[in-house]
Structure prediction request, 239 residues.
Amino acid sequence: MKVQIFIPCFVDQLYPQTAFNMVKVLEKAGCEVQYNPNQTCCGQPAFNAGFLDEARAVCNKFIQDFDTADYIVAPSASCVGFVRNYYTKLFENAANHHQVKNVASRTFEFSEFLIDILKIEKFDSVMNAKATYHDSCAALRECKIKEAPRRLLSHVAGLEMVEMNELETCCGFGGTFAVKFDAISTGMADQKVTNAMATKAEYIISTDLSCLMHIDGYVKGKNLPLKTMHIADVLASGW
Prediction:
């Protein structure tokens, strides 16, 4: 199976190892992984800031870059949710509306692709630790992802998963929300971290590095014994 990977801006710049680990897992699952070096952004930052024409230009480039891909897989439910739910609105009356819908239907978040398309749950991963899982708003509400990552993590040898209280509550990142409303954002991060710490977990795992970056910043600021980890990094552990 041929898979084109989309690497979000912040993953490319700040967490490239997660992208490599995603490729590692996909290849172990038997995929022929391809990367288009011309790819840039999905357009979400410009869209969220209200620059719709600029966003449309970036989104159109994404559509052209991935027009021939059988499947588009990304380590970010946030980007995937944007492509699925907002591209059709941006190009609602455009001549390429059918093309836009087609691209959106072929775009998947990493963990849901493994479970829903490849039908693979176990990767002989090993991680001797206790962890809790964070449902990102984009994964849970925009992509309807909840069970897929948990099923994958349940097969990681040595990994003890425990659910935190208020697990569906936002971590407070929300893109520019964290900048515009930093006090509220920090308060939400405090609530999320407090609930995670109550589980006695060593790690907090998620599908979205944007959430994890926000949580990690709060954790490090408070010098707390909690680490963040993307699910691709977990699945690539131990082999």
User: Anything to note?
Assistant: DSSP finds 13 helices and eight strands in the chain. The first helix runs from residue 9 to 14.
